[in-house]
Amino acid sequence: MKYKESHTLILNNIARFIDLTELEKQKYLSLLTEIKVKKKAFLMQAGDVAKYEYFITKGCLKVYTLDEDGAPHISMFAVEDYWTGDIASFMMKKPTPYFIKATEHSELLGISRANYDLLFQEIPKFEKFYRILYQKSLISYIQRSNHGISLTAEERYIEFKRKYPQIVNRITQKDLAGYIGITPEFMSKIISKVNRM
Amino acid sequence: MKYKESHTLILNNIARFIDLTELEKQKYLSLLTEIKVKKKAFLMQAGDVAKYEYFITKGCLKVYTLDEDGAPHISMFAVEDYWTGDIASFMMKKPTPYFIKATEHSELLGISRANYDLLFQEIPKFEKFYRILYQKSLISYIQRSNHGISLTAEERYIEFKRKYPQIVNRITQKDLAGYIGITPEFMSKIISKVNRM
DNA sequence: GAAAAAAAATGAACTAGTTTAAGACTTTTA
DNA sequence: TAAAAGTCTTAAACTAGTTCATTTTTTTTC
Fold it and tell me: What is the rounded distance in angstroms from the CA atom of residue A149 to the CA atom of residue B179?
């Protein structure tokens, strides 16, 4: 069966961990909602309860919090083939501390909380899919939380460039600074230093 | 049915997310290995392939890496009712960068990789258990990786004390410094400052 | 329970990263 | 397409956290 591009992308993402029959694929796709966000528009704002978990089929978004001084701390950038959202807010139905803003015109597939619960009843294989997906995310967050504490800002920048070369060129230096955990001024210094090396 | 203390502890831990029949409980327990480690002994050393994922029934352990300069970076403390190990090494059968050392005489239940795989075949409910366990761990690592980058050392210390009051008193200040990501000297200063407040 | 080893405290000199401010460059918007 | 808004660069003064060295206190070991 032939699917549209965004559906092929999400089905391939899922096929990394589990095999679905045609019928299951169609059932799964029927549980998703298509969402478009313009550049600079918000997908989520602090105080909201997360209505969806998102899969990005096109574009780029940043997930961030604002601290007491109003300074942004970016926790992730999400591009095509990535999952994003606030899983704590989504699961516990409590207000999120996050903002999610499109840095490019973006297209997403969202699964609502009701459909997420339904999914496990209708296609129990998805327990395995999410078990493995969360396991992999966990592995990378464990690494990131250690790096955040044990590496210098310069090392974190070099590591980010090595790990996400496709993202570096799509985001501003200022946002990258917000992710690395330093000021834009210091980010500028690091970049000119690293480029000089 | 009456179980020994360590078995009751792990069964209660699992019962937070899934219900098992008596038969399933017995099957599950049969897949576990009992492990004891003396204070200062290693459960795992860098270069090993992780043979088990562990549940702690008694004691306290620290999980850490050594950087190029030989300085320890502690990624977690594990006490009774906690799960630990190196999930990346365990899953991918590749060498671990971690050391796991008992800071007290400790007792654990381990599940081997072969039995972990068997578990999902024999009791598919465990997909759900691990899906939720990994989801919860993910939520706390997401928070920790953000805090590691956006909070000051003093704030991280206060946060650790608030979140793990039962652990603070069981570990040395030096190890806590290795977890917070600062030198023992600076940890000492922070503690005397915070206590003075 | 004495001796040895490890942990904790303190202080002075140092470095990674911040703050503030100002000018140049780039992108967005009317 | 001009003006406004946002991003990037540079630099000087500052602060959070490190390093090194020494002393005191606590824990471990025989």
Answer: 8
Distance from CA of B156 to the nearest CA of A (A): 11
Query: Does residue B58 surpass a pLDDT of 70?
Result: yes
- Amino acid whose CA is nearest the C1' of D8: A188
Q: How far apart are CA B86 and CA A44, in angstroms?
A: 34
Answer whether B65 sits within 8 Å of A146, measured CB to CB: yes
Domain extent listing, chain B? 5-125
Q: Where are the alpha helices (DSSP H) in B38-183?
A: 87-92, 113-122, 125-150, 153-163, 165-168, 173-180
How far is A2 from chain B, CA to nearest CA, in Å?
31
Q: Which nucleotide is closest, CA of A184 to its C1'?
A: D8
**pLDDT at residue B197, as a whole number:** 67
Of A120, A128, A145, the CB nearest to B141: A145
Q: What is the mean pLDDT of residues B163-185?
A: 95
- Token pair in block for residue A148: 């955040």
CA dist A192 and B54 (Å) reads: 45
**pLDDT tens digit sequence for A16-27:** 999 999 999 999
Interface test with B, best of A99, A149, A175, A182 (most B CBs within 10 A): A149
Stretch B65-69: mean pLDDT, rounded?
Answer: 87
Instruction: Provide the CA A157 to C1' C13 distance, Å, integer.
Output: 29
Give the tokens for residue A103. Answer: 């840095």
Query: With contacts defined as CB-CB under 8 Å, which chain B residues touch A124?
Result: 124, 127
Residue A78's pLDDT is what? 96
Superfamily of domain B5-125: Jelly Rolls (2.60.120.10)
Q: What is the pLDDT of residues A116-158, one digit of tens each?
A: 999 999 999 999 999 999 999 999 999 888 888 889 999 999 9
Distance B26 CA to D15 C1' (A): 59
- The three-state secondary structure class of A95 is strand
Structural fold of domain A5-124: Jelly Rolls (2.60.120)
